[in-house]
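tool=predict chain=A
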Amino acid sequence: MRPFTRLSWCLVAFAAAGCAPDLRTDFPFDGALPDGVYFKTEALPSGLNRSVVTATSKNSYVYVDLDTAKDLPAHEALETNAWDLAFQRYKIPLNGGAGGPGPVEAAVLVNQNFDALTRAPATGFIQDASDPVLNGPEGGWYYYDLGKHKLYARQENFYVVHTTAGAYFKLRFLAYYDAAGTAGMVSFEWKAVDAP
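tool=predict ok
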């Protein structure tokens, strides 16, 4: 009797794997997070909203709808396409362009007065390309400190986001860590502004 060759072992392993239960049934890889609230917002006396997104998962996104100030479960976000921003750790794609199938776009404003802005700019809106707008090298929301190996929110950049519902919100990031130092706890302030 001939001994098994390497190819024979591969064929046996392949056949055995074909008989195993389909992992997609038990682990659907749909990016869903366990039930919970991942987007908390507080209305400030100034009229701003201050929000924290629990974006600590390395595998799943938190989908945020700015128009309703809520996070959407993955299945609902993908079925309704009502999300505006998605958060996974420091990555924040828009629901537009390469980031998603929606119409969301953002304008990057550098070294301008966040508090004084009451109307969205008439130009400068772009959708995600190979780099997400909010993570891109020119308009990224954070910088990485090589000495401390930490992310810090850029204070000179803020954004105006044009949402799936056609509204405009100004938005500035505050931090990537919570008070305990937990990474992926993205905080930002935001407020509706008038259309251009």
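The chain has one domain: 33-193. Helices lie at 6-19, 23-26, 74-80.
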